[in-house]
Specification:
CATH topology of the largest domain: Rossmann fold
Number of strands: 10
Bound molecules: zinc ion
Helix content: 40-55%
Number of domains: 4
Distance between the termini: 61 Å
Structural class: alpha/beta
Radius of gyration: 29 Å
């Protein structure tokens, strides 16, 4: 039973027990040592990085009576310290703004800040997820913050600082907590398990630390689960099974398939990932692999600590062009952000893989096939009456979904009509627009494509497809990332999108 609550049992009582967050700890210690105290602090950071833990320690430091003044090293013996350890110090008022329902209660609590503490030196308000406060609660708090009584300290914590009103922000000293690096998490878990006398394989806690994604609390919770799952003997294999972690070989295979442009194989591996693991983890593994390969190309040495990917890294770094690695990484990075928006993860993940297969940096494309350059720059008009296709996950709906609803910018001359600017002309068959200058600085000259004149359905389809692809945020972001203008984006022979 004791191992059920590792996170609580091993919650640090002083700054020395905090994992990571050196900067924040340093500035809080400094403030205590030099007695430069503010009346409000805002701890920001993702979940489980230690915001409330740090705030509680700070509250304890403010109130420890051992030295007659606030101390960065609370004694652990005085009534205040004992009250904190037992969780019943009367002048620490904790409010969870996310779960608080009685708004009036909150207001009353906050208005009580004017009265002096009953036992401690400071009356400390620890308000978690403060961005969830109602406006009346914020107002009650602001009243106190505007003219703070000397004995009141507000410790606010939030995962979403954007939602905290500027009037509150401007009165707070802001402390930003970072995700905890994997190495520190696994070292901490090893320490805790050692003290608990629980056997573990290093690989097991490395897997847990990876899944914790920067959160000490998640790491501890997963460790609790692993202890239960493995009956207190944390072997790497059972822990991996529990975490639904992937055999890294699958991800290495995926990277190979993507860079070899083998769609069938990539989708087969995606299915395997869906059956045995976690798409998000797979994506992060893939990104790790690409990162290592890119590093190896530049420095001659990857730094994968576990070395599990080593062979795949070497292989990728030798076989794949640096731009391709960058491109895949960028798509994965953006895709990870958007994956949660997909209606289901599998669909989102597959679309992501297809997107990776759809793009080719120009350097590679030139080698593969001399694609005719369509030179498109403006979104092609959608054919009137055509059903707009559903956008890929994460993209915005196409602006001209209803043909009649909004005027499309630059309304839509078809190829036969006169064209008003060079880029529009280049979009159509050059034979129908003689004398139109091709893109400046282009090295490849466009070959007239006799099989698909611009007026044919195939050409219209093609332009439609370009327009759809170009509307996706990922294309815009990629173009921005590589510093490319619209004119550098075009469709290749195999329906992939090319970047020059
Ligand atoms: Zn004390």
């Amino acid at each position: 039973m004791g191992h059920q609550v590792l996170a609580r049992k091993w919650r640090p009582q002083g700054f020395e027990g905090i994992v990571g967050q050196e900067q924040t700890v340093q500035s809080l210690r400094g403030a205590l040592e030099h007695n430069r105290l503010h009346s409000a602090y805002l701890f920001t950071g993702t979940r489980g990085v230690g915001k409330t833990t740090l705030a509680r320690i700070f509250a304890r430091c403010l109130n420890c009576t051992a030295s007659g003044r606030p101390s960065p090293d609370p004694c652990g013996e005085c009534p205040a310290c004992r009250g904190f350890a037992a969780g019943n110090f009367p002048d620490l008022i904790e409010i969870d703004a996310a779960s608080r329902t009685g708004v009036d209660d909150t207001r009353e609590l906050l208005e009580n800040a004017l009265y002096p503490p009953s036992m401690g030196r400071y009356k400390v308000y620890l308000i978690d997820e403060v961005h969830m406060f109602s406006s009346s609660s914020f107002n009650a708090m602001l009243k106190t913050l505007e003219e703070p009584p000397p004995h009141a300290v507000f410790l606010l914590a939030t995962t979403d600082v954007q939602k905290v009103p500027p009037t509150v922000l401007s009165r707070c000293l802001q402390l930003t907590l970072r995700p905890v690096p994997e190495k520190l998490i696994s070292a901490h878990l090893a320490d805790v398990l050692g003290r608990e006398g629980i056997a573990f394989e290093p690989g097991a806690i490395e897997e847990i630390a990876r899944c914790a994604r920067g959160s000490i609390r998640d790491g501890m919770t997963l460790t609790d689960q692993a202890i239960n799952f493995t009956n207190g003997n944390l072997g790497a294999d059972p822990v991996r099974a529990m975490l639904g972690s992937l055999d890294r070989g699958v991800v290495a295979g995926l990277a190979a398939a993507l860079t070899a442009r083998d769609a069938e194989r990539a989708l087969a591996l995606s299915e395997q990932i869906g059956a045995s693991g976690d798409y998000l983890l797979a994506l992060e593994d893939l990104m790790g692999l690409l990162h290592q390969a890119a590093l190896m190309q530049l420095t001659g040495a990857g730094i994968d600590p576990a070395g599990a990917h080593r062979q795949a890294v070497v292989e990728l770094s030798q076989r794949v062009a640096p731009e391709m690695l960058q491109l895949l990484y960028q798509i994965a990075l953006l895709g990870r952000r958007d994956l949660e928006l997909a209606s289901d993860l599998r669909q989102g993940f597959e679309m992501l893989l297809l997107r990776m297969l759809a793009f080719t940096p120009h350097s590679e494309q030139a080698l593969a096939s001399p694609a005719p350059d369509s030179g498109v720059s403006d979104p092609a008009p959608s054919t009137p009456g055509a059903e707009p296709e559903p956008p890929p996950p994460g993209s915005e709906p196409p602006p001209a979904a209803e043909p009649a609803a909004e005027p499309v910018p630059e309304p839509a001359p078809r190829a036969a009509e006169p064209v008003s600017e060079p880029r529009r002309a280049a979009e159509s068959d050059p034979q129908t627009a003689p004398g139109t200058p091709l893109q400046a600085g282009r090295s490849t000259v466009q070959a007239p494509d006799a099989a698909t004149p611009a007026s044919s359905p195939a050409a219209a389809d093609r332009q439609q497809r370009i327009a759809e692809l170009r509307q996706t945020p990922v294309v815009r972001t990629l173009a921005e990332h590589f510093g490319l203008g619209d004119e550098h984006i075009r469709l290749s022979d195999d329906e992939g999108l090319g970047l020059d």
